[in-house]
Write the structure tokens for this entry.
Amino acid sequence: MSLKNRIAPEERRKLLKQLLNEKHFVRVIEAHNGLSAIIANNTKEKLGDELYEFDALWESSLTDSASKGYPDADIVGSESRYITIKQILNSSTKPLIVDGDTGGEATNFEYFVRELENMGVSMVIIEDKVFPKRNSLDPRAKQTQEDPNRFAIKIERGKNIQLSPDFMIAARIESFIAGAGLEDALFRAKKYLNAGVDAIMIHSKSDDPKDIFDFAREYQILSDELGMRKPLICVPTTYNTVSETELREKGFNIVIYANHLLRAAHKVMKETALNILKHGRAFEVESMCSPVNTIFEDVGFIEVREKDLMYKQGKVQVIIPAAGKDLVFDIPKSVIKIKGKEILVRQREILRSCGLEDITVVKGYKESLIDIEGIKYVYNTDFDKTHILHSLFKAEVDMNNGFIYLNSDILFDKQIIDNLLNTKQEMVLVVDNSFTYHKHDVDKKLDLVLTKNKPIKERRMLYLKDNEVIRIGKSINKNMADYEFTGIAYFSEYGANIIKKIYHECATNHDGPFHEAESFEKASFTDFIQEIIDRGFKVHLLEVYKGWFEIHNKNDIEVAEKLL
Ligand code: SPV
Ligand code: MG
């Protein structure tokens, strides 16, 4: 099934009649499963000014049976055929013509009609042979035609069951297949037309189209006689040098390429299997095969991946602890204006451009100053006794689907967040390797990071790396440090679950200094990260080279304004 090609059953059902009325000539190709239906549905070619494509699909008994490993001899039951029909319908938007074989007993046919019509099939073609039939293309198979009167009754009963005027029943005349000749074919055509059939298919297994051309000529005369001209269908498998133009000129309205996708796949599958055996490896068959990515594209895997990402972005919360009193500024840093716009407003703009709508800000000190719309607020009323970690956990309920941790005093590029959302790891810190290149205030203690694998300092690229943090904190020697923590981190649903457990465990049991903090109550985010690492969990990193800016003092505002 594909989500790409979707159409409601009642919409699809009427398309075949519409096409016949508009174009008078309809090109149909076989499909035997979802993938072949996607190919049949999507293949298009522009020749000159005209776009060529298949108008409808054919669910063939031959290719349905063969694709399931069965002969085409009424062995595959209707339930199994429904599965194939459903696959085709679920993977295409074009009208579908179903090969109904003989239709079985008239009663069986009634149920078949009801089922197909409900599914959104536009036409069923039944052949005037006796059950169990044999495929018409085998020159040696015994072909026994049905009594025309009995067959006409089957048509009538089918027509009485259908509910919508859009559904069509076609009669397939097997007189040439059974060796009964033109006269028999015309006699039957008249009977079936009088029984109310919607179209006639004339079949032949000859290389020469003479028989069907003769029939088409006489069919026109018969139609004139009866005062009705129902569509005429042919299946040029054996007389395949005849062009569509010629068929159209001879009076055909539907051409069915009845088995070609399955036969093509069958041939290449055999060659591929043989060549792998011959060469003892698969390299030689690569050019015969579609790249996996092409199959991914055709069956909608790319969309699944994109939706996974979108869904993740849709539900990932951003949590910004902004409760503490700053040493330099006497207002919350979130509301410091950079070029007339509060830091929080700037953060919200970038986050929204990344698809992140859900932002929680933890307020405390001068909380009434932070009043920006579209943001959820929670409170850390103990902001003067606790530190950032406790502010973060005031938003614990918002961590459930995974979240992005963001310091309240930083500006950052959209790309950092986009890349962070693309990480596959559970806990990821955004770290910068440019800290050794730019000048820092002497009093500014950086949150420095030591990693398992050492970075290549000269590199200037933004990229994802499967590296791990082993130490984080302000006490790391700057000359030894690998990175600076930017104040941006990501926790998946799983990662959030882990940190919640650790937090509550520490809150209950921890006593005394907590890493670089004098106590657990005074713990910063980085102290907590160190605790996570020390407990054996992997904290990964997303390495960036600049692309973010921290407002640490008043001078930083000027620098930021210049940068913006
Ligand atoms: C089919 O495709 O199953 C048909 C056409 O019935 S033929 O195989 O030519 O009989
Ligand atoms: Mg068939």
Observations:
- The two ends are 49 Å apart (CA to CA).
- The chain has 19 helices and 23 strands.
- The chain has three domains: 9-258, 260-289, 295-563.
- Residues 260-289 form one domain.
